[in-house]
Write a structure and sequence with these properties.
Largest interface: A-B, 33 and 31 residues
Shape of chain A: elongated
Oligomer: homotrimer
Structural class of chain A: alpha+beta
Chain lengths: ~140, ~140, ~140
């Protein structure tokens, strides 16, 4: 049994879902580990992670629109606005989604379903570079 | 330290919470592993996982009604409707809940609290068979 | 490769976010484990876990207010009210957030980002003592 760590840096174009499945698949293949547990951890509180459908891009558009509706920008709703009107909605959207993903690895591959992809969900309006830590434990 | 993989197939009757704790307990007992980490992974983007109260069934009824309210079916809200009006609400409900659960195992049992049960949360109207991957790492 | 288990008891003053990062950091240091995976598991269905910003306390105030808005207390919305008007909203808030957190450990420290802290999110009005299970696997 052994472990590997890696830090991915993912550039986002601002609000919405950015797929990074190929980046993880590529790193995983290089670890030469047959069975184990992969943990994917987002080191931010204004961006998060989701496993979502990787087929129709309209799903990502609708998801972004949905979260903009349920966590709206508003002067009157929030006290905290240190970094602008998209600051507190970003923390809320992060709280409603995932900071980490755990994916079993079998026969050297993530056990994702056919339509599942890994996404960084950017919650700030501006482009950001996000740090995503990978940890693999197995043999 | 060793690992086990298993694939559960859970039949759901359509929208709502289906408990599958006994299926996991039974498989876990057969692994004869005293201490470890259990990962439960849902291989779908229109069904998800929750740990919820296993006592009063009204909790499940109220949860289903709540998610139907905050992610309503609507022609005008979504672009993506490839599989019908319950398609995009299903992706949203999945984003708001869990695709994977991690449960520590101690003395051969999951460290669930007294009132905690494991549920598949079906988000489509029709019955489905869902693939839930189990991964156990420990000794 | 080895494992450690621990049970934290966290006192909450009622609804809102209670940070417990130092309790975990302290326990982790005592385990003398360089690399691994830390799992934090909440044994309740009316309290949950979040990784959130640890700088401005206004973020916690706004998060509590947000969840009170989207899961309101109401006689007419819920069937289940066995433990009072805050009972069903507590289950909903738990479903929308996390029951477990997975944090990679590297060089003996959790791989949290600069602004990330660990929080118990209490969803009941009354103060409670919450059981949080810790599990560390690594070497």
């Amino acid at each position: 049994m052994r472990q590997s760590h890696h830090l991915l840096r993912i550039s986002t174009p601002g609000r919405g879902l950015t797929e990074f499945t190929p980046r993880v698949t590529q790193w995983l293949a290089a670890q030469d580990m047959r069975d184990g547990l992969l943990t994917i951890f987002c080191r931010h509180t204004s961006a998060s992670l989701l496993i979502q459908e990787n087929a129709d891009p309209d799903v990502r558009t609708d998801l972004e629109a949905y979260f903009a509706r349920i966590a709206p920008e508003s002067d009157s709703l929030y006290i905290h606005d240190a970094e602008g009107p998209d600051d507190m909605p970003a923390h809320i959207r992060t709280a409603l989604t995932q900071t980490h993903l755990s994916v079993p690895v079998n026969a050297g591959r993530m056990l994702l379903g056919t339509w599942q992809g890994l996404y960084v969900f950017e919650h700030r309006r501006a482009p950001h570079q996000r740090e995503i830590a990978l940890h693999l434990l197995g043999e």
